Amino acid sequence: MDNYELVAAALSKITNTQVITYNEYLSQKETNPDQTFQYFDCNLLHEIYLVKGVVSSNVIDVEENDDAIVSSSNAEAEVSTNDFEKVFIALSGETLEIKNLNANTTISQLKNKIFESKGIVPNDQWLTIQNVFIKNISGKTLTVKNLNAKTSINQLKNRIYETEGIPPNEQYLNYGLKSLQDHQTLSFYEITNDTTINLSTRLRGGASKSIGVLDRDFLDPHYDYDFTNIKSSGRTYMRGNYKYVRPYGWNRIAIRVLDKYSDNRWLGVNNRTKFSDSVEGEWIVSFHGTAKNNANSIARDGFLLSKGNRFQYGRGVYSTPDIDTAACYAEKFEYGGVNYQVVFQNRVKPGTFDVVSSESGLKIFISRNDKNIRPYGICIRKL
């Protein structure tokens, strides 16, 4: 069975919009040239389809790490990043090559490397951005020129509108796994000269005639684990220093998230001495039902459990550490004449969510800020 086709069928049901594989897209774009397509990647999944609802949650502190570029008139450099292994710094009369970089290298680290080579202190460096490339799903690339580090995403969208005629509120800009928010700047996302940003029109469940196309790198088969025919041995597993109940009876399909954020500590992929133990910096595992309009809603039940507390009301994402609980709220879909059920598997940042529970043992996590919950797997089982 092709997991891409299975996941496409599941997402089609969840979004109430057709989602196809990339191979299907290649076939359809030739026979149906007037059809509008857009990428459906993990970030779009996170932004739109995590079920949110009213919550009773007090203030949860969120730490933001903004490594913004500092402007100075003492030194100027044009940054060109053709890949993440090296960049070329255009100084007055010479070009400096900086090697041994990676996708997680920050602007501050880059400035330190320039200081080591040329002796220009970081606070006296002004790194400017001249061009970025905007690539749509059809492969067309637009070059947007004369930008700078403080250019906002909204300003970039307006530049795209001037050329392509796509209204800013219909543009979906994605760099890596990050959705580019209008109020942020290019420097906030570490976007430098010659960076390629993906553009698609927004896909809203049932509200768009666009067909969603699964990015070829949407899944990460190396980390798939089929628990369909596996039963619990009674062994206790910990993730983020919290008990992890493995999804026995489900086929766990991995979403490609490795190296998509500032680091991989949240996944616990390094320094695990025992597979059953937690590692430092690891986030807790939770599961998320996908039926948004189901009367049997995890958001409704979580709110009812929590509203007796004396908290301010807001919005939040509901999930649970128990996949059997999540299954009560999960979407059902059909593929190849067989009925299935689908649940998202997430990581939740410790210390950023409230826990509510019932006398029957129902336990629900309430994440007030959706930056603190990240889908990293899709669990599917036959019914």
From TrEMBL:
PROSITE patterns: UBIQUITIN_2. InterPro entries: Ubiquitin-like_dom (IPR000626), Ubiquitin-like_domsf (IPR029071), Ubiquitin_dom (IPR019956). It holds the Pfam family ubiquitin. Gene3D superfamilies: 3.90.228.10, Phosphatidylinositol 3-kinase Catalytic Subunit, Chain A, domain 1 (3.10.20.90). The lineage of its organism: Eukaryota, Fungi, Fungi incertae sedis, Mucoromycota, Glomeromycotina. PANTHER family: UBIQUITIN-LIKE DOMAIN-CONTAINING PROTEIN. This is 3703_t:CDS:1. It comes from Funneliformis geosporum. Residues 130-206 form the Ubiquitin-like domain. SUPFAM superfamilies: ADP-ribosylation (SSF56399), Ubiquitin-like (SSF54236).
